[in-house]
Structures are given as structure tokens and as C-alpha cells.
Amino acid sequence: MKKSLQFIMLLVGMQLGMAQDAIPRISVSFTNVEVLEALNTIEEKTNYRFYYLEEWLEDVRVTGSYENMQVSLILDDLFKDTVLNFYIDANNNIFLLQNNQIYDALPDDFFGEEEQLADDGPSYEDLEDLGPLFVTDEDSGVSRGMPVVKIGKENRNNRQRTFTLSGKVTNLRNGQPIPDLAILVEGQDIGTSTNSNGNYSLQLPVGENIIRTQGLGIQDSRTKIILYNNGTYNFDLSESVQALDEVVVQGNLDRNVETALTGVTLIEVEKIKNIPLVLGERDILKAAVTLPGITTAGEGSAGYNVRGGRTDQNLILLDNGVIYNPSHFFGIFSAINPFSTGTAEIYKGNIPAEFGGRLSSVFDITTKDGNTQKFSGEASIGPVTSNIVLETPIVKDKSALLVGGRATYSDWILRTLDDEQLNNSTASFFDVVAKYNHTIDDKNEIKATGYFSRDKFSITSDSIFDYSNRLVSLKWDHKFSEKTTGSVILSNSEYKFGIEFDGESNDDFDLGYKNNETEVKLKMKYLHSDKHKFDFGLSSKLYVVNPGDIVPLGAESDVTSLVIPEERGLESAIFASDSYEVNDKLLIDVGLRYSFYAALGASSQRIYQDNAPRNSGTLVETQDFDKNEVIETYGGPEARISARYFLAPDFSVKASLNNAYQYIHTLSSNTTVSPTDTWKLSDLNIEPQEAYQASLGFYKNFEGNKYELSLEGYYKQQKNLLDYKVGAQLLLNEAIETEVIQGDGKAYGIEFLMKKNEGKLNGWIGYTYSRSFVKLDSPFGEERVNNGEFFPSNFDKPHDISMVANYKFTRRFSASANFVYQTGRPVTFPIGSFSFNNSEFVFYSDRNKFRIPDYYRLDLSFNMEGNHKIKKFAHSFWSFSIYNVLGRNNPYSVFFVTEDGDIKAFQSSIFAIPVPTITYNFKF
């Protein structure tokens, strides 16, 4: 029977072939014309007549030139980039169809008659046509009210059984991407989740699929997708009013248990508005300090110490551009605008292979995309600062601009006070950020960010200090295929400071310092399969450091002009990583980064005697290098290995091992970070820093992720840490290598975090036990500290406890508390005095032998939100807080003064009394 049918079909085919030869051929040409005009032209030249629905042809334009071609071939080419199909009957009628096709014959196996396939399965050539696709009635009970979307168009010659559906999921209210949204296919074991940019990709069987989306704070949705071939569909989803109370506390469920990386912290930007902080400022980085493993040297100090590392070992990125000093006014305020921030992720354990150049951590902060739907904004008014962020669409649904600014009016407050000394003081800062995001098409997107911050202060009447950060970055995201995406990133960052001294003597001066870096980076992602996800790329960064210059201020100044020669260095790297899902329990993330650094001229490098201390007496020669000539090279492989193993569905163990190189160092003799700290590049005399870290952790969730519990330990070794000799002169010193020494470091600790995500009472308790030591040993006494033995670093604080609690009385009223306890940091004390040549001299202890008193502080706040009416111009938020409720006189530093032959100790504090604050926020 089947062979007879095949013979008949062969005869019919021969007849159709002969009839095809009789079909007229025409010559036509179209250049970006409406498809309706093209169809009318074909009708005029032939006896064909077209039948269609006009709405199918709206906004469809075609281009093509055809000589003596059959109409069917012309239509094939005209419609190749559309969802239009066509069918020609025996009466020269042409019926246009959208997505699907008309079949005038059933496939051979339609009634169940099909040949047996070989045991090894069909080859691509053996697969027969799929035949017509049948879908359920749109008015059936299952799909009634469900949107139906057809993707692509049916092609009877396409033998694929599965196709790729991809797209982006955005918030309908503000156009922001929705990360970590579950996308599931009903009735099938198929699903995925959106990435940080809201993008997703699914392999689906051809035909009908019901797609369901689920996400915290987002209304569930069901969409019937009829898939004919590869295509794109973007979801615009609404927020869930019923889940608004939980959006703040339940983001990224299971993330702590499921990911392979150790020591990763995600700052939920929206949640920090409830944490009471100094002067009512919502502060991303201050919120990070409440989490285990991240500390500061003291209240009011800039910089952050992560797992026993120095402040210069943290890479702080804002939209891929480096910020060297992320603080305002000595660390009291953060320089990152919280209203413009989208995500903030901190890597303190296994740093991904794409990041390099720092040993301890990466603060990866991303500015949120502007609202492409409508004009919106957020603002706050506080006792010392005000903040505003505005978002406006440029091209609706495609591009938007975000602009934010923050400033203090502390100068105005100081001028109103009666104290003459305060009247002459200056303390002001501001920062601005702007971001433009533009979706060119479904494969290309660009984002550009600009940022600038500036601080200016005068503690004494004769000196004015100022420092600033500036960065610009440009990112182009491109989708090469359903599995391959890439990004090209270009960024430039600059940090500079200045001191203007105008005193009563003739030593007035103007001092300046600046460093600049420019980086280009290519980053690729390849989704090989469900088991392998590859990241790879390369980067190159040019450092240009101006170590400082000083010029006389005024004609009567006796100061001699001095310019320290510029330093240049090129740091390049190639990296690759694979997230390999071995099985349902074991996930391995393995990465390798190879970094290469070259110190570049123009420069004069001093050569010293071997086996001798570096000083003017051991100088052998000075070697000159031309511009861009290679002075010295360093580099090596950096391994990034981590693994996660499920002991239970909600209980995992993770381990990691990594190493890193750092080619830039800070020069500081201060206990805490100062705006006048300078940076030094590795060169002929100063080697790069190195670090090796191993960590092991256990992560457990309870009661459906209501509670999170984690315990993680680490051990870190460091080499070539840059420190200073006793009495070193670091600023404006051309022979800086004679004032510094390099040594070893080690750090270890245990971090405990217990977090409650749900309920009226939520928050976390974090405890860290950590130690950090430095060893500065040398055969020469002037280069040896504390007899060459390990001693505590400036930021060694064994015990650190933080507690953050929020209690919701109602949906509008809540209270929050923040408690901090830290062991006092190490200091060096004078332990005696002696006379020499009729002069009194102070004799100091070993470096960091003593500690200042322990630090503890309690903050409280009461928060009141406006009503939650949807149709309202702006939603308000009041915060009434008290910083340092207990009035604890926590010491910031300890200093010593000799009076009448006696040495007297004094301690300084930043906030020694309770500080009440009222802040008003509104969002529209």
C-alpha cells in the first residue's frame, strides 16, 4: 500500500514539475517599499490574485531585484525575514498566512504507519517532515484568557524538533530587568531563570508550549507560545501587590546554598533603607560592614578591610570603572549614590576569573538602568545632605537616561554657628552620576556611565584639602547566537587630591597628586549545555600615576617647586572559567587567569648594591628608560577553583582555593586610610603583592528558606606587602624605595551568619573571629620591624559582632535596630622617655603592641511609609533615627602630648553623643 502511494506521489510530482515549467516568469525590483505595493505590482504583471488580512502587512517593507523569476521564488525571498507564508492553489489564487502553512497532503505517518528506525536512532537525513502543527482551541478551559503568541513561521523543510526561545523580562512599571525569575514549561521538565540583566534562553519542542513565570514580588503569568523556529519573546510583567511586603527580604532565595562560589555577598539595595546609619544616610558600603568578614579600621575611617586584607587590596567597581576612594568626609559617608544603584555584589572568597589586580575582594556595583517606560525618580532630604535621582525615557521601550546627584549643605550649617573656629571651617562634598542605556535591537545593547565626586574640607584655617573621583565607562553587549553572548567594555578612572596651605609663615604651597587608569575588556559567555557554562575573555589596563608636585603659593613663599616623575604600567590578562555541573549534587567552578604586568618608561630607576639595605649610601647607578620602554615585567597564573556539594536539598558544603597578583600599592604611614595616601606601581625595586587563600563553608536553609545559616572559615597567605620604615617620608619622595620595606602577611578567621528572611521580625546576626598579621624581616636592622616577627596589622580585630533587626508593626510602620561590637584595633604607645644632649625623646613600644578600647554602638530608628495607593504621584518614606543611642565615646584614635615633661595620652572620637536624625524620602 505504501509503495503504491509513493509511486502515485512520484507521478503527481512529475506532473507538477511539468506544470511548473509553464508558470510565467517576471522581472520586478523593489527598494524598501511596503509589501502591499509589491503584491499589487505582481498582480499587475501576472494573473495571480492575493488574499490576506491587511493588519498582517502593517509596517512590513521589502527590498529585492528579480530577473525572469517564478512568482513563488520571488515570494520566498520577499518573505524570508517575515512571519508570512503563502499557498498557491490551482486557480492562481495566492493565500497569505501568518506563521503557519496550508497543507494539501498529509504526511506518510499521519495514520500511524511509520518505518522502524535503526537501533542507534535516526540521522538528520532520515528525519521526515513534521507535517502540520496542531494547537488546542484558544477558548478551551485550559487556555481561556491566556495570551497566545506565535514565534517564527512554519517551514515544512525544517526537520528540527526543538528550537531556542530567548528574550528579556522587564518590570512593566519601570522598565527595569527582572533577575532570578523562574521560567517554566507546563507539563514538561524544562525551565530556566533570568540572569542579572533579565535575559533568558530556553530549548523548546516545536509547536505549542505553555510558559509560566514565577518570581518574588512579580505577578505569576501564563503564556501560550506556538513555536515554529528560533525566535525572541520579551515579557513585561507587573509587580505583585500582595507580595510587596516580602520583596525586600526574600530576594535570591537558595542562592547562598546553590552557588559554587564561596564568600559571595549580595547587598539588597532596597533593604538598607531600614538600617539606621549616621545622619540618616542610606549607605551601601556601610551596610556591607554589618556582614561577616568586612570591617573598617574605625568609625569615620575610609576604606574597608576584607578577610584580613588591606584597604588597597579591594577592587571597587562602579559600572566596570574603578573608584579609588569610595567615601566622603573621611569615611563618614559613602561616595556611592544608593538611589541610582541597581545591584551590589561583593566577592571576598573565590573571586571570579574575570576580575584581577587586587588580592582581597571585589565590590562589583552596578547602576540601575533608566526607566524606558515613563518619567520617574526618587529623592531624600536629610539634616546634612540631600539626594535626588531622575529617570526619563529617551526612546520609549528602547532607551532611557538616569541622572542622580547628592550634596551636603554642611558649609551653610557651619557658617550659622557662633563658634568662630567652626565659622572658618569648610566641609562639603557632592557626587553626580549619569547613565544612558539603549537597546538597539534584540542582539545589541549599549550602556554608558559617567561619575564624578569631590570633597573639600578645611580643619584648620590655613589648609584646604580636596580630593575627587572621576570615571566614565562604555559597555556594548552583543548576542552572537542563542548560546553565545559577549561584551566589550571601555573605562577610564581618575583619582586626585590637593593641599593648599596658606599660613602666617613664608612656606605657603599648593600640592597636587593624580593617578589615572584606562582599561579595555572583552568578556564572552558560552552556554555549551546544561552542564557546562563557559566565561572567557581578555583585558588590558594602562596605569598612569603622577606621584605629586608642589609649587609655591604666592610670590613671597620660600617653597621650592618639585615635580616627581610620572609612573606608567601596563597590566594585561587572559581568563577563562567553566561552571561544570557534574551531577545533581556536585557543581564545580574552575577558572584560570594569567596576568602580565610591565613597568614602562620614561623613568629613571635606581640600582642598589646586592645584599645591602636600600639607601643613598648603597646606590650604585641610575638607569634611564625611554617612554614606553619596558623596565621590568612580572606575572603568572591565577587559579580560581571552587566547588559545591549538596548534603541535602537545602544544605551544602563549599570549598575554594585561589591565588592573585596585585601590581599597585598604597603608600601610607597612617593607621587608617587618609585622602592623602598615594599609590605606587611595581617597578625595578618594588615587587607585586601576592596572595593565596583557601576557604571551606557550610550553608543551610530552614523552613522553606525562612532562615539562613552559614559558617565559613578561611586561611590566607600574602607576600611582598608594602610597608614603611620608622620615620619614613612617603609624600613627594623621588627615591620612595628607600623609605619602604616589603614583607609577608597571614590572616585566618571564621565567619558566622544567621539570617531571618520572613515574618514581622527579620534581619541577621553576624559574628567574625579573624586575625591578621604582618612580618617585616630583613638581615638589616633599618628594614626590620618588631625583630622580624609576625605582629598584628593595624586592622586586626579578633572579634566582630553585628546585629541588624527590623520589626514591622504594620505595612506602613516599622522599627529597626543596629548593634555593633568590635575588638579595639592595635596601636603603638610610648612606653618611656630619655634625655640626650639636654633634649627629651620618647621611647615607643614595638609596633602595634597595644590596643585602643573596644568599640560598641547601638542605633535605633522608626520608619513610617506613606499609604500604598497605586494611583498616587509619589510614595513617601519617613525615617526617625538615633545613631549611637548609648552615647558611647568610642575612640577613633589615640595620640600623645608632652606637657611639663610628662607624656599624656588623649583619645579622639567622631560621634561621642547620640545623634538624632529625621530623613524624608519620596519616590515617584
From TrEMBL:
UniProt xrefs under Pfam families: CarbopepD_reg_2, Plug
Annotated keywords: Cell outer membrane, Membrane, Receptor, Signal, Transmembrane, Transmembrane beta strand, Transport
GO molecular function terms noted in the UniProt entry: siderophore uptake transmembrane transporter activity
Membrane topology: Multi-pass membrane protein
Any one GO cellular component localisation term in the record: cell outer membrane
Places the protein is found: Cell outer membrane
Signal peptide: 1-19
Biological process annotations from GO: siderophore transmembrane transport
The TonB-dependent receptor plug domain, residue ranges: 280-357
InterPro entries registered for this protein in UniProt: Beta-barrel_TonB_sf, CarboxyPept-like_regulatory, Plug_dom, Plug_dom_sf, TonB-dep_rcpt-like
The keyword Cell membrane is annotated on this UniProt entry: no
PANTHER family: HEMOGLOBIN AND HEMOGLOBIN-HAPTOGLOBIN-BINDING PROTEIN 1-RELATED, TONB-DEPENDENT OUTER MEMBRANE RECEPTOR
Family: Belongs to the TonB-dependent receptor family.
Protein name: TonB-dependent Receptor Plug Domain
Organism: Flagellimonas flava
Organismal lineage: Bacteria, Pseudomonadati, Bacteroidota, Flavobacteriia, Flavobacteriales
